[in-house]
Fold this protein.
Amino acid sequence: MTAPRLDVLCIGNAIVDVIADADDAFLADQSLTKGSMRLIDEDEAVRLYGVMRPGREISGGSAGNTAAGLASFGLKAGFIGQVASDELGDIYRHDVESLGVDFLVPARDDVGATARCLILVTPDAQRTMNTFLGAAQRLEARDIDPARVADAAILYLEGYLWDPAEPRAAMQAAIAASRDAGRKIAFTLSDTFCVDRHRDGFWALINMGKIDILFANEAELAAMTGSDDLDTGLAALSAKVATLVVTRSEHGAVAVRGAERVSIPAEPIERLVDTTGAGDLFAAGFLAGEARGLGLEESLKLGAIAAAEVIQHYGARPEKNLKALAGGLLG
């Protein structure tokens, strides 16, 4: 088998995050549930933006954040996601490529506006997300080049992109190309919102053996398995995938691979600012370890390091060099 050029190819929603401070009273006034994610249309995106406090525009999107984290660890990452030929699309492409990540899909002028997520951060660092998918939901199977997918050791997919039919077909095409090339496939459940909408589809992927590494948090694990008991949920899902990784916020994370089960604590932090992107960056750390052939404990440690960095500032992409923070873990 030819050695792959990319360590990880990430496929997901290309979204520009607009992050603003908010208080509980504002959320209540807007009938928003703190800590939730909802999909909105363009009219609601314009309306909500108009009543928000001034925001910070930062390129985001779950898989895009993971690609940024991988690049910060010094790995070679690629990204597939659809943007429009507009100002936000130009910003997104520039941000991704400036990190050294290969952006593999051209912008289009027939897909509406580039996606954006209006993120309201309350003083307790909880984020309430309002997502207009726009151009991101127009990624198509024809955008997937099997040769480029085969040129990545690991394919990483976000559950958020499973919602619209067109990108779902694109992801399925990528899964087929990756599997045909004998590569590993990683998938994140992304949100309980996604699990509730697509539980049967996610289980079908898992039961057909198409997922090698599955990422979830405790709430998503419970939603998938129907059990709030951590051990029960771990047993149910780990029996179906080669590697299961579950993040537990301040309680750290656990990974199961066959008979091996490893738990680690969360990394200490000075100040919790914004939890946006914590799971995305944890996945970046774990995948960095996986790509380098490290064991579960080392890979979990890298994930914890990346998550701790990103929650201490606004935005879902690292501001510090993650490879430097990892010390000798990556060699």
In short: Residues 6-12+60-112+136-325 form a domain with the UDP-N-acetylmuramoyl-L-alanine:D-glutamate ligase fold (CATH 3.40.1190.20). The longest helix spans residues 165-180. Residues 207 and 240 are 7 Å apart (CA to CA). The radius of gyration is 18 Å.
